[in-house]
């Protein structure tokens, strides 16, 4: 379990992470989502103590990361940037990491096998492809058989097989009751892999809910209707809480009323329908809606906004 | 999933050990002995280490041979034993002057190599309290460099000794005036390496660290001696490289005793390591 309390990080006058509170629960895969510069990587770096919080704190299983007797057994972390000496072989890199915790060479060979690195393990890391580098990073994260797994953009550069493998790995970890925090810029990947989402925008948590809730709440479902009598249908359905948008000849997109209701009403009025399709929102749309709100909120310049440029302007 | 080539496809297996709310207590534990082992693995598994150490030994042996061959004694009169020993020591430790530049570069690279590649993030994730990693790095580098330095100076004695004996200059390794300066040379090399490690950790940049280290070893003595002021002149013996020469002195004409010179070198090292520790603890990695 990861708990952040008022976790804050400033870089000069810029706020990378602004007093965020969140809890990453064990037993499920939590997705960390947000545009570039939203503070995902900074937050992950603060969890394992690579960056120091300006204020607030973050704990892993009730303790600061550095206070654990066996940090690598507590948290396995893959950071976005490469974190391996290019002049050393993959095997020796893992062996050196393992040695700090007295992890035996047997476990090193195990994670090499697990990540499919056998054929390149003795080669120097400098020649690794992006995908190989990612696998080595994941191998290092698995070394201590950690209770918590933190992966920043783990599927970057992986082939489709690798992507599936990572997906299964994190699902398996969560199923065992471990904690998994995963960041990805691919919303479709999150929809497939994560149970719970924490959406960051400009260093703040703008959503923290199950994936299904975020998809459901952020976008009202839309129904597409095709009818030669679209004009009459639009008039028939007109109500203050219903939005009807013509998107083509004879095509309407209707928000605020269910497909079933549209069908009933059209039948009652004798209007023939050629198509009646409920369009469920994708996570991507939900995400765009969420972050769009964030941008609008910012540009209105609410007094409690902590956007650095607004603070600058206020001074 | 359909397995293609077994070498390029991650295994379907998932980690074997079960986990969850009640995890069995583990034997894995972060320890200083483990960190030392880790740093030793790191030091010996990059090429720059073996190259640097090989160069230190080769230069030292070569310099001893050149010095011994070049020595031409006009006066055939018998020399006092102490003077003979001083000749042999000088030939055997001449390479230390060049060796300090090599181990200085190595010391910088041991830490800046981690910053330039991002390895430091792995290191500090494994050792989140950070300072033990610095101490372990220093201890491992010190020990390895001392051993290599001893091989270089003792090996040089084995080269210079017979060559000079042919010219009537004799010295015995068991003579304190011989063995102590030879080991002091090795000690100085080890201390320079750790000093450079601190400089590298402060600057976190290979080019900058190497320039600063070589500047302090080579340039500072020249610059200070060019300043026409007594204070500049008074400072010269306290520069790290001059103090290093003082550590190996076997004659009595030096400004300070070898142990005083050692204290001066230790002072440089303490400042460098303290700065490194302070900044390592404070800065983001």
Automatic annotation (TrEMBL), chain A:
Keywords: ATP-binding, Nucleotide-binding, Transport. Residues 2-227 form the ABC transporter domain. One of its GO terms (molecular function) is ATP hydrolysis activity. Pfam families: ABC_tran. Gene3D superfamilies: P-loop containing nucleotide triphosphate hydrolases. SMART domains: AAA. Belongs to the ABC transporter superfamily. This is ATP-binding cassette domain-containing protein. It comes from Cryobacterium tagatosivorans.
TrEMBL record, chain B:
It comes from the Bacteria. Residues 1-25 are annotated as: Disordered. The chain crosses the membrane at residues 51-71, 91-113, 134-158, 178-203, 210-231, 259-280. This is ABC transporter permease. Keywords: Membrane, Transmembrane, Transmembrane helix. Residues 1-12 have a biased composition (Low complexity). PANTHER family: INTEGRAL MEMBRANE PROTEIN-RELATED, MEMBRANE PROTEIN.
């Amino acid at each position: 379990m990861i708990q952040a309390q008022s976790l804050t990080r400033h870089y000069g006058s810029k706020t990378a992470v602004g007093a965020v509170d969140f809890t990453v629960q064990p037993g499920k895969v939590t997705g960390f989502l947000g545009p570039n510069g939203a503070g995902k990587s900074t937050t992950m770096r603060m969890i394992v103590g690579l960056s120091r919080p300006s204020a607030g704190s973050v704990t892993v299983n009730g303790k600061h990361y550095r206070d654990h007797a066996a940090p690598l057994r507590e948290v396995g972390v893959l950071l976005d940037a490469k974190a391996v000496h290019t002049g050393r072989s993959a095997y020796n890199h893992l062996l050196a990491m393992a040695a700090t915790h007295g992890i035996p060479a047997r476990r090193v060979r195990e994670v090499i096998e697990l990540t499919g690195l056998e054929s390149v393990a003795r080669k120097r890391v400098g020649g690794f492809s992006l995908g190989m580098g990612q696998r080595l990073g994941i191998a290092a994260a698995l070394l201590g058989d950690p209770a918590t797994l933190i992966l920043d953009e783990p599927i970057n550069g992986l082939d489709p097989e690798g992507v599936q493998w990572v997906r299964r790995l994190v699902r398996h970890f969560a199923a065992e009751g471990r904690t998994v925090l995963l960041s990805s810029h691919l919303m479709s990947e999150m929809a497939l892999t994560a149970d719970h989402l924490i959406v960051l925008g400009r260093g703040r948590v703008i959503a923290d809910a199950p994936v299904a809730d975020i998809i459901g709440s952020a976008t009202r479902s839309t129904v597409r209707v095709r009818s030669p009598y679209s004009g009459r249908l639009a008039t028939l359905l007109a109500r203050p809480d219903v939005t009807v948008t013509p998107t083509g000849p004879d095509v309407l997109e209707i928000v605020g009323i269910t497909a079933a209701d549209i069908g009933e009403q059209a039948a009652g009025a004798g209007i023939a329908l050629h198509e009646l399709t409920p369009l469920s929102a994708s996570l991507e749309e939900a995400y765009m809606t969420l972050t769009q709100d964030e941008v609008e909120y910012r540009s209105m310049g609410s007094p409690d906004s902590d956007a650095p440029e607004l603070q600058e302007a206020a001074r | 999933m359909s397995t293609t080539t077994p070498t390029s496809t991650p295994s379907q297996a998932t980690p074997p050990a079960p986990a969850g709310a009640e995890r069995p207590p583990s034997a894995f534990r972060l320890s200083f002995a483990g960190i030392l082992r880790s740093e030793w693995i790191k030091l010996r598994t990059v090429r720059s280490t073996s190259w640097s150490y090989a160069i230190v030994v080769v230069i030292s042996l070569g310099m001893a041979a050149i010095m011994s061959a070049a020595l031409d004694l006009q006066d055939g009169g018998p020399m006092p034993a102490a003077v003979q020993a001083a000749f042999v020591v000088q030939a055997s430790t001449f390479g230390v002057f060049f060796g300090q530049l090599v181990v200085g570069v190595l010391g910088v690279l041991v830490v800046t190599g981690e910053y330039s590649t991002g390895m430091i993030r792995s290191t500090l994730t494994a050792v989140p309290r950070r300072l033990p990693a610095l101490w372990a790095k220093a201890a491992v580098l010190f020990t390895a460099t001392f051993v290599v330095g001893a091989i270089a100076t003792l090996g040089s004695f084995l080269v210079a000794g017979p060559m000079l004996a042919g010219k009537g200059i004799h010295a015995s390794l068991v003579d304190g005036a011989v063995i102590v300066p030879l080991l002091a040379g090795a000690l100085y090399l080890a201390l320079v390496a750790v000093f450079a490690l601190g400089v590298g950790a402060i600057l976190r940049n290979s080019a900058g660290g190497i320039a600063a280290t070589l500047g302090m070893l080579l340039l500072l003595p020249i610059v200070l001696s060019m300043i026409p002021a007594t204070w500049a002149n008074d400072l010269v013996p306290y520069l790290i490289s001059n103090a290093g020469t003082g550590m190996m002195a076997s004659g009595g004409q030096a400004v300070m005793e070898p142990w005083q010179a050692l204290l001066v070198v230790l002072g440089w090292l303490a400042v460098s390591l303290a700065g490194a520790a302070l900044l390592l603890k404070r800065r983001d990695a």
